[in-house]
Design goal:
Layout lengths: L2 H4 L5 E5 L6 H12 L2 E4 H14 L7 H10 L2 E6 L2 E6 L11 H11 L2 H13 L6 E5 L2 H5 L5 E6 L2 H10 L6 H10 L12 E4 L5 H14 L9
Helix pairs in contact: 2-10, 3-5, 5-9
This protein binds cytidine-5'-diphosphate (2 copies).
């Protein structure tokens, strides 16, 4: 279904940006503030990468990755005000953030067929509710017609510090390089996205700046919870 048809039913706020720029933190607060559903598209790519790795497939083996895509059942649903993902009925839980998934997720995410399947699932969420969706290509590819687009950035030094504070092993530079240079749907700030450099900002400050832009773009305060 073309995404412009679903936009007639619900609104979507697109939050894109590189790893550890603060997308999840601000998307959670924003969705809570507005009463929108929070959908982290990265979780879908991570769940698929987790399944690929668990099956003993090398993340860089595109042919085996596509075969695997057609063998599994991925279900993207909703629980409370959060989006959920299962693969063959299993929720990977904290394994989604493992160092193995961090190391393999960008390789599987550059495969065209994987993106086609997951983008279709992302668009289906607009049939359910108004959403805040975070990722890499939400404003550029998944919902290009939404008027509400943000590109959240921060310096590589600040982002690496944030991840290491979380105690997570994650080669951000390697992931950035694959995500930004892939042929299909690379990480880019759309021309019409508001770019926010969060290097010296708290999450609250980022939230206030986003809300300010949304009100100026006509997202009415009365729509809030
Ligand atoms: O939270 P973090 O920014 O570290 O990563 P994520 O949003 O969970 O995304 C994990 C990986 O999934 C990214 O590095 C991309 O390779 C891929 N991804 C993508 O290609 N497109 C999206 N819309 C979301 C994630
Ligand atoms: O979703 P993404 O990978 O873009 O980033 P995140 O998971 O929201 O944020 C990564 C870490 O940076 C978290 O521990 C946040 O608390 C922290 N953070 C911060 O200190 N200041 C910000 N403005 C944004 C995030």
């Amino acid at each position: 279904m073309p995404s412009d048809m679903t936009l007639e039913k619900h609104r979507v706020i697109a939050i894109d940006g590189p790893a550890a720029s603060g997308k999840s933190s601000v998307s959670e607060k924003l969705s809570d503030h507005l009463g929108f559903l929070h959908v982290n598209s990265g979780i879908m790519y991570r769940a698929f990468a987790w399944s690929v790795l668990r099956s003993g497939i090398h993340a860089g083996d595109a042919r085996a990755v596509v075969e695997h895509l057609h063998e599994i059942q991925m279900h993207c649903g909703v629980s409370g005000d959060k989006a959920t993902v299962t693969v063959d009925g299993v929720d990977p839980g904290s394994e989604l953030k493992s160092s193995e998934v961090n190391a393999g997720v960008s390789a599987v995410s550059q495969v065209l067929e994987v993106r086609e399947v997951l983008v279709a699932k992302q668009r289906e969420y607009l049939n359910v509710a108004d959403i805040v969706m975070e990722g890499r290509d939400i404003g550029s590819v998944v919902f290009p017609e939404t008027p509400y687009k943000f590109f959240i950035d921060a310096s590589i030094e600040v982002r690496a510090q944030r991840r290491s504070k979380e105690g997570i092993i994650d080669d951000l530079a390697a992931r950035d390089a694959i995500d930004s240079n892939r042929v299909v749907s690379p990480l880019v700030a759309s021309d019409d996205a508001v770019v926010i450099d969060t290097s010296d900002m708290t999450i609250e400050e980022v939230l206030v700046e986003i809300l300010d832009h949304l009100y100026h773009k006509g997202l009415n305060q009365l729509d809030e919870k």
